[in-house]
Design brief:
Rossmann fold; five-stranded parallel sheet; 11 strands; alpha/beta; globular; 15 helices
Amino acid sequence: MKHIDEYRDRELVLKLSERIAREISRSWNIMEICGGQTHTLMKYSLQQLLPQQINLIHGPGCPVCVTPVEMIDRAIELAMNPGVILASFGDMMRVPGSHTDLLEAKAKGADVRMVYAPLDALQQAMDHPDREVVFFAVGFETTAPAVAMTVREARRRQVPNFSVLVSHVRVPPAMEALLGSELNRIDGFLAAGHVCTVMGEAEYRPIAERYGVPIVITGFEPVDILLGLHTLIGMLEGGRNEVENAYTRSVRPEGNLQAKAIMGEVFDLTDRNWRGIGTIPSSGLRLSQDYEDFDALRRFSLKETQQAEPGVCMAGEILTGRKRPPQCSAFGSACTPEHPKGAPMVSSEGACAAYYAYGSAGEDPRPQESSINEH
């Protein structure tokens, strides 16, 4: 495990942590929405630099983790079809469905291919005109523009054997679902900088106003996260329920207008089931009517179903911050990266994977307690 002493901006991080300690006057529950930020916190032991009044809550900001069981099952069903090539990002290969995963399906003869970009899957379709190529599209607003561009290119090039199994999800509706829960104790958010690079700030302002919580957009380096926390503590202590951008080198207030335009052209909003959490209204994307010929669900007449998370996995409680990974009885024993029981142990952004990789013998470096506390 890396320590902050190895970080190039160590002195700035330490100064920010000292400022936070001086300025904080009470306990605050802060959720970092992105799994990439969770991994940075654990990798550099940043929690050990923060005052005990800061209770960090790990949020559902891992698209692989929140992809529902039934969507994995659909991908496997397609992959087992002898006429289909199923293309996917590598981090989806080990995510468990109801009974198996894509890697095991591949071992049993399914033609599952790892790609690095959606356009790679389109090229596969053009290289194999006698096969149906399905791209398993998973991700937040960060990856959706590339998928939208690929679908539009498939139509332009008239590639008839290419389709997309869409499982894209959106961050703001998930934040609202958390804030609207009767179990909610979140005082403020660190928002994901890469998502806001695409979408900008506008969607977050109504959330901050409606629920009375400040939101700070921040990046993924240790100094980014400490700067975001310092900004957020100042807002909390001052009673300011606004949105601030602490990641200005990447995020513009309006976001990426071209990326948003192509998403708006190719996708419509839809309700989406989140693994371990449930259905969140308008939290997903689906292909619009103009592009529905490229919808794998429609092309292969796949049924709309929902499957429960395996009982041994506490994914829902982990993803909503109600529990920390070491509080799961399977963590580090029955559930490991080599033999995962749930998605949070598989993904490079999953909280369980972070605790397994960077925690000392799987132990939380902070005192063990429920992630969400009452004041």
